[in-house]
Design goal:
- Helix content is 53%, strand content 2%.
- The chain is an all-alpha fold.
- The chain folds into two domains: 103 residues, Endonuclease Iii, domain 2 (Orthogonal Bundle), CATH 1.10.1670; 101 residues, Endonuclease III, domain 1, CATH 1.10.340.30.
- Strands 1-2 form a two-stranded antiparallel sheet.
- A hairpin with a 4-residue loop joins strand 1 and strand 2.
- Helix 5 crosses helix 6 and helix 9 packs across helix 11.
- The protein is elongated.
- The two termini are 13 Å apart.
- Its EC number is 4.2.99.18.
- One of its GO terms (biological process) is base-excision repair, AP site formation.
- GO terms for molecular function: 4 iron, 4 sulfur cluster binding; class I DNA-(apurinic or apyrimidinic site) endonuclease activity; DNA binding; G/T mismatch-specific thymine-DNA glycosylase activity; metal ion binding.
- Keywords: 4Fe-4S, DNA damage, DNA repair, DNA-binding, Endonuclease, Glycosidase, Hydrolase, Iron, Iron-sulfur, Lyase, Metal-binding, Nuclease.
Length: 227
């Protein structure tokens, strides 16, 4: 079992330093060319891989141009355009409703505050954080997706289970200048090494400071269950 550094802020800093060395080009993987496309891509990415989303949005963004196109298209037509995406019917409804709100309440522009973004259909704090960070260059939190959730628990950075509580724990220990990059680093490491089902602890740059390291530890702290 790895031995995490104390206090947790020191553990967080060491994690960031090592992952930055391992993934020097870490950044958002969703493809978009404007704020509305970013918003739509993030809505679609819930419980779906970025690779799949990018494949679908390639033709989606060619067909639809602006909030009015999405708000006025027939629900069934938009759903059909998204049919390889998980929960495509619900996501089509979210996109139509969000774009209608953007037209009616925000002059056709994607809003730039957390409160306004989370009032849009299908937009929670995670999605809003991504849009603020990459669409408006506003960083006021940490995006907690499934990778961040899993890694932060495995690495002993939090014992919380729910994203908003995890985010609050991370905000206390991750340097503010690293809030945005922390997410990208966790995503890259979660995809490459610290996977959900079979993490490659033997080849992990964090193994010696990870209390979940399965060479010795009996418990996966992300799940709270034995390996």
């Amino acid at each position: 079992m790895g031995t995490p550094l104390e206090p947790r802020a020191e553990q967080a800093t060491e994690v960031i330093d090592r992952l930055e060395e391992a993934y020097p080009d870490s950044t958002i993987s969703l493809r978009y060319s404007n704020r509305l496309e970013l918003l739509i891509a993030v809505i679609l990415s819930a419980q779906c891989t970025d690779e799949r989303v990018n494949k679908e949005t390639k033709h989606l963004f060619e067909k639809y141009d602006g909030a009015e196109d999405y708000a006025t298209v027939d629900q069934d037509e938009l759903a059909e355009d998204l049919n390889s995406i998980t929960y495509y019917n619900s996501k089509a409804e979210y996109i139509r409703d969000s774009c209608a709100t953007i037209l009616e309440d925000h002059d056709g522009e994607v809003p730039d505050t957390m409160d306004e973004l989370t009032e849009l259909s299908g937009v929670g704090r995670k999605t809003a954080n991504v849009v603020l960070q990459h669409g408006h260059d506003i960083v006021e939190g940490i995006v907690v997706d499934t990778h961040v959730q899993r890694l932060s628990r495995r690495l002993g950075l939090t014992e919380e289970e729910y994203p908003e509580r995890i985010e609050q724990d991370l905000i206390e220990i991750v340097p503010e200048d690293d809030w945005q990059q922390f997410t990208h680093l966790c995503i890259d490491h979660g995809r490459a090494t610290c996977t959900a089902q079979n993490p490659d602890c033997a080849d992990c740059v964090l193994a010696d400071i990870c209390p979940s390291e399965k060479g010795d530890s009996e418990i996966d702290l992300a799940a709270g269950e034995p390996w």
